Each structure stands twice: as C-alpha cells, then as structure tokens.
Amino acid sequence: GQSLEQPSEVTAVEGAIVQINCTYQTSGFYGLSWYQQHDGGAPTFLSYNALDGLEETGRFSSFLSRSDSYGYLLLQELQMKDSASYFCAVTVGGSYIPTFGRGTSLIVHP
Amino acid sequence: NAGVTQTPKFQVLKTGQSMTLQCAQDMNHNSMYWYRQDPGMGLRLIYYSASEGTTDKGEVPNGYNVSRLNKREFSLRLESAAPSQTSVYFCASSASSSMLSRGETQYFGPGTRLLVL
What we know:
- The structure holds 2 protein chains of 2 kinds.
- Chain A starts with a strand and ends with a strand.
- In chain A, a hairpin with a 2-residue loop joins β9 (84-92) and β10 (95-100).
- Chain A has strands at residues 3-5, 9-13, 18-25, 29-37, 44-49, 53-57, 60-65, 70-75, 84-92, 95-100, 104-109.
- Chain A contains no helices and 11 strands.
- Chain B contains 1 helix and 11 strands.
- Chain B is globular, with a radius of gyration of 13 Å.
- At the A-B interface, β4, β5, β9 and β10 of A face β5, α1 and β10 of B.
C-alpha cells in the first residue's frame, strides 16, 4: 500500500510564503498531486508532478524529488482566501486511483 | 456546465435504514468515483467505475453498493446504515481512467453530509 505524511496544520501571515511538505512511501510511484479544500467543500485540483523539479502555476508551485520520496506545495503572497486544507495524493503505476494524505490545514492570519 | 452534482446535500438516518446517494456529471467523463471523508482523514475511496457498466471496490467498500446507471450517473447505496458510516461523501469524475495516472485531474462534487444515529 501507500502511506503519506503531511503536517496537520500550518499557520502564516498574509503576504508571506508558506511551504507544505509531503513525504510518501509507496512502490511503483507515478506522480504526486495537490488538492485544495475550503471549509469541507469540494476538493479542487491544484497541481501534478511526475518528474523531479518545480511546477509553477501563478502564486502556487509544487516540487517533487522522486529520490527523496518528497514533495511540497509552495504558496506565495498569501491571501486570506488561501486558508483551506491542502491534500497531497500519490498515484502509482498500474492503479490510476490516487491515494490521499490526511491533509494540512493552512491558517492565514492578517 | 454544472460539473459534478450530488443529492442530497444533507441526510440524517437511523441505524438500519437504507438510502441511495446520487451523483451525476455533465462533462462526458468516463470514470467516476465515490469517496468518504472523516474528520482528520483524507479522502478514502469506496468504489469507482472506470467506464459505463463496470465498477470496482476501493479501499473501504464494506457496507456499500454502487450502480453505474449510465455514463452520467453513479449512485452509492447504503443498505443498512451504521453509525460508523457517518461521514461526508464525495463523488468525483475524470475524463479517462488511463489518463489519470498521467496527471489528469479529478473533478469533485459538493459532497453529501450523512449522519447515522
């Protein structure tokens, strides 16, 4: 099976930069995804990394190191609306269904 | 496009009652999924359907049944509800099962909040 570890909570101030880490243990790793969820609503897709390196999408970036079984989500210029839960999810070859981590609650303070 | 819709939004059941959660998508997606989310937990897969007419068990299928009624609709049934099934249930869809592993996104519905007393 797969296991993922991410911090349960992260706090930061508006305008700052925050990094949410995710480490995983799995065989046949294919890719790492990130999802955002506001107040228990519908999770929404943020990013996907299959190769080592940084993927940037506006204020959000996602990084993957396959050799370290590690990835992170970087949020820049934090806004109050970024307060949400963030989930990492791994996909393995042969089983295309992602396995989700327990989520990180990001609290952005004024 | 409405995307993924789910009904009902809230439901209270007594132990032993049955109910069906409905899910529909209007994106012409092939694959559909049912997840449950409990406090402090991530999303856990209950069942999925890679295409019309096929269904497969996920991580936590016990106590549930599903029906892929057609390409648009995927329902989840609780035959005899138990308090342990109190949860938030999310339906999701994706264009293609084979593409999902290459980074294709899943689209989620707004969820059904179920309380079993």
